[in-house]
Write a structure and sequence with these properties.
The chain has 132 residues and is an alpha+beta fold. The chain contains 5 helices and 6 strands. It has a 6-stranded mixed sheet, covered by helices on one side. The protein is globular.
């Protein structure tokens, strides 16, 4: 009986990938950075070009432009609270995180799409929409 328990534990550890653990909680980091309105930290995860949809403004921007637009969004909408609604992390090359963002004036739904590029996930699409 003891042997089976040890064997089960060993099998569990063999299926654990430290690299995934390091990047496993991108969703938690995103939620924290959105709560703080930290556009600089969020932008560190941007791909070199990113599709940015903020309320009714939609376009593809480079990292610096996208960071500036996000910074402006936070200036107009100072965040109070951010929480994870949903996260998809079972695909090795794709992550999806949906957050609820409550600001001083409004509630937003934030959808972040990430794709793996050179062993790290990069944000390829960021969508901020008024919560319905």
């Amino acid at each position: 009986m003891m042997f089976k328990s040890i064997l089960a534990l060993m099998v569990m550890f063999l299926h654990f990938h430290p690299q995934e653990a390091m990047q496993g909680d991108i969703a938690d980091e995103l939620a924290a950075n959105f709560k703080q309105g930290n556009s600089k930290e969020i932008a560190k995860g941007f791909a070199s070009s990113i599709e940015l949809i903020i309320i009714d403004q939609e376009d593809v921007y480079n990292r610096a432009q996208a960071e500036q637009i996000l910074k402006d969004f936070f200036l107009k909408n100072p965040p109070n609270k951010s929480s994870i609604i949903h996260k998809l992390s079972n695909n090795p090359n794709y992550r999806l995180t949906i957050l609820s963002l409550i600001t001083k004036t409004d509630k937003f739904r934030v959808t972040v799409t990430m794709k793996k590029s050179s062993n790290a996930f990069q944000i390829t699409e960021l969508r901020i929409e008024p919560e319905r």
